[in-house]
Amino acid sequence: RPLSKIYQRCNVVVLEPTSFEEASKVDDWNQSMKEHIITIEDNKTLQLVDKPKDKNVIGVKWVYMTKLNLDRSINKYKAKLVKGYVQQPEIDHIETFSMVARMDTISIILALAAQVKWEI
User: In angstroms, what CA-CA distances link 120 with 4, 31, 65, 82, 109?
Assistant: First the structure.
């Protein structure tokens, strides 16, 4: 494949919100959070109760991910409520999701290496 076609396929940047405050300003993320809450309620996987005086509270955090189609267009906005989340960004972790090398990325690197005659 020509290098220009590979660049064209991979030229997508999706910025996901890093906080609830950011996400709540965008209708698509609000809708995704509402759908997730409805799913939790329908499945009866979470029940809110009054806090017992001698117990600690389990924290929660919203995690946001944009799902893409094969053509890199946006498929859907995915919001998940993660229970027991107490880690702090930049202290306990850097990324919420593990990075995975995609075949397109490897193709770009190999094509670039061949173009500039890098040794692999």
Answer: 21, 46, 33, 41, 10
Instruction: Give every CB contact of residue 36 below 8 A, 6+ residues apart in sequence.
Output: 79, 80, 81
pLDDT value of position 93 = 53
Token pair of 116, please?
A: 């500039």
- Token pair for 107: 């193709």
What pLDDT digit, counting tens, does each position of 21-55 carry? Answer: 999 999 999 999 999 999 998 998 877 788 888 87
Interatomic CA distance for residues 3 and 36, integer angstroms: 40
Separation between Cα atoms, residue 92 and residue 85, nearest integer Å: 11
The candidate with the shortest Cα–Cα distance to 2, out of 105, 115, 119, 106, is 115
Q: How far apart are CA 62 and CA 96, in angstroms?
A: 11
Neighbours of 32 (CB within 10 A): 21
